[in-house]
Amino acid sequence: PFWAMIYAKALVPGDMSKGLIAVIEDITSQRIAAQALRQSERLNRTIIDQTADGFLLVDAGLRICDVNRSFTRLLGFTRENLIGRRPDELWPENAPHIFPNNLLELIDKPQAPIDLELSNAEGNTHPFLVNSGVVLDDQHAIEHAYAFFTDITVLKKIETHLVEAKEAAES
Predict the structure, then answer these.
(1) Which of 26, 110, 129, 145 could serve as 150's disulfide partner, Cβ 3.0–4.6 Å?
(2) CA distances from 55 to 115, 132, 170 (A)
């Protein structure tokens, strides 16, 4: 068995009784490739949606085009309020550290997360480790940029307690 596309045409237009000509094309490889692509897209979407880290995707014009549930949970914004906006509208001072105005700077940037305080929807700040990068198209032009946001509030509290304990022990 194989997948096929059948093209048929009447020998005499409008009169099928005179016969028809048919061409059968094996499209099994295209169907398998399409199925593999759908599985890959589903896998990637599942990972993005189920990670505890926030995920933000911007287009080449720095407009937000996607976020995951964790991003909305961590920062209190709704997806609807984010799509189409620019990160510098949310965090005027910190957005350039995440997505520089010239996204080309992200291409050769070492993959080291940065520690930032970001405001949530209510205006309260929380510490995050942010790691960003770009997605290139077939011509190596920037198509999108993305960032992952890891909430480090608990780690910062532990760090504060350790510093306080160290200072108390030294005095």
Answers:
(1) 129
(2) 16, 10, 41
pTM, entire model: 0.77
Residue 100 tokens, joined: 């520089």
* pLDDT band, residue 143 (cuts 50/70/90): very high
- Supply 69's token pair: 């549930």
SS (H, E, C) the chain: CCCEEEEEEEEECCEEEEEEEEEEEECHHHHHHHHHHHHHHHHHHHHHHHCCCEEEEEECCCCEEEECHHHHHHHCCCHHHHCCCCHHHHCCCCHHHHCCCCHHHHCCCCCCCEEEEEECCCCCEEEEEEEEEEEECCCCCEEEEEEEEEECHHHHHHHHHHHHHHHHHHC
